[in-house]
Amino acid sequence: MTATRTWTVYLSGEIHTDWREQIAHGVQELSLPVSLVAPVTDHASSDDCGVTILGDEEQSFWKDNKGAKVNAIRTRALIEDADIVVVRFGDKYKQWNAAFDAGYAAALGKSIITLHDPSLTHPLKEVDGAAMAVAEEPSQVVQILDYVINGRLPSSQRAQAAE
Questions:
Q1: How many other CB atoms are found less than 10 A from the CB of residue 14?
Q2: CATH class assigned to 7-35+84-162
Q3: Model pLDDT for residues 123-133, shown as the tens digit of each residue
Q4: Where in the chain are the domains?
């Protein structure tokens, strides 16, 4: 049975690898009825949006505060409208904003998929505890979306299930 609706999937988290592009490619390859949305992923724009639009701040705390609030307008709206929230944690930087997004999504009752290396399992145990699925690779996120939307397992697993 194929889907009759378009699913909105919010892609939160680290911005230093191509995981979003990998998911977008997989969604396109399977022709999934999915609309992918995300925060602003240009690091400099995200950091400087508040002071660029609303005026300079002398102290970095207030610069960051302005930027965080301007960015939160987009983040809140997109998470609230999302059917599924994917939260990616990378190895290089601490993604505190991603953890906050996961908590916000959990508070709204959104379905969450976390995406991270197994080495982060312990530090992310509370976040993973709120997730419906914990993936290690972007391809697994695509497979979850295909299964949730179409009830299809990956082709190799379909063959095994039929045996």
A1: 21
A2: alpha beta
A3: 999 999 999 99
A4: 7-35+84-162
